Amino acid sequence: MPVITLTDVVKTYPPREKGAPPLTAVDGVSLTIADGEIFGIIGYSGAGKSTLVRLINALELTTSGRIEIDGEPVTGLPERELRRVRAGIGMVFQQFNLFASKTVWGNVEFPLRAAGVPKSEHQARISELLHFVGLADKAHVRPDQLSGGQKQRVGIARALATSPRILLADEATSALDPETTQEVLGLLRRVNAELGITIVVITHEMDVIKSIADRVAVMDAGRVVETGPTFEVFSAPREASTRRFVSTVVSGAPVGDDLAALRRRHDGTLVTVRVSEGGVDQRDVFALLGRHGLSFEIVYGGIDEIQGRTFGTLTLAVTGPDGSVRAAIAELGDSATELEVV
Known about the structure:
The N and C termini lie far apart (51 Å). The chain is 36% helix and 29% strand. A hairpin with a 2-residue loop joins β12 (295-306) and β13. It has 12 helices and 14 strands. It has helices spanning 49-56, 79-87, 104-114, 122-132, 148-160, 178-195, 206-212, 230-235, 240-247, 256-265, 282-291, 322-332; strands spanning 2-13, 23-34, 38-42, 64-69, 72-73, 89-92, 166-170, 198-203, 215-220, 223-229, 269-276, 295-306, 309-319, 336-338. A 6-stranded mixed beta sheet has the order 6-7-8-3-9-10, with helices on both faces. By secondary structure, the protein is of the alpha/beta class. It has 2 domains: 2-247, P-loop containing nucleotide triphosphate hydrolases (Rossmann fold, 3-Layer(aba) Sandwich), CATH 3.40.50.300; 256-338, Alpha-Beta Plaits (2-Layer Sandwich), CATH 3.30.70.260.
């Protein structure tokens, strides 16, 4: 059963200037997010992903379309009922949004007070959460004495205080350095694995998605342009937006000046081969070229991995008899493309 369902969701805002058309931030988005998965939503600034999150937790109302949480429609609910829905959804923010005047303990206690949890239950719950996020020794410290990673751990503990079923992480690692980012992502994986909480991760960072998300939706100009299992989407991207994200971690096929420079430096035929686990393996490519009596050199591209599964693009300068080169390219099929300088 999906825990979150969006059907043809649209969100528009009034025009910024008189006579201008309304601003469409989310444009006909349909998604299902399964119970217990980590679902990534990736897009560049202005893609509509943060607006989509505010629609999911009912901080903003849809212009049209339908949103369901656990099969219950939330579009059109009165504010009193929306507060109940929001209580089951935790939120982690990019800039932490901690209360500077409160201690770590006070920040985690705040949602318990707001939800009307009896005070007699606060101590056990807060202690449990601070141990879970590794900050039990910081209980009486104020946020300005914490590192960025520690602040985000407090944010996660606070988001978990009322035992939500869903956790929304909106650019939760964007303000952190790479090492701290991996620590926070590791904590989110624990939240998912040990507590069974469905997590929706919103980000513009490919590294975040490829290290944590089970499935991903790519947003561009308010629309979801591609969605599916993370490895499948990024190892064989169909859309230009997706290919741009992949290019931030793995070089694709060379074009333009890069391709011309390779042509000047290398003899033979330039061939780009897409490799991936479950598809064409790079060892198979090298063995095939050897069987055809061809020599080759890797001149461009690279290999990366998503949750232990490899993918990437390699451009080879292949030398040998022209007939053998053609036969090898034909045998590689759709995975190989001969490159020509335009």
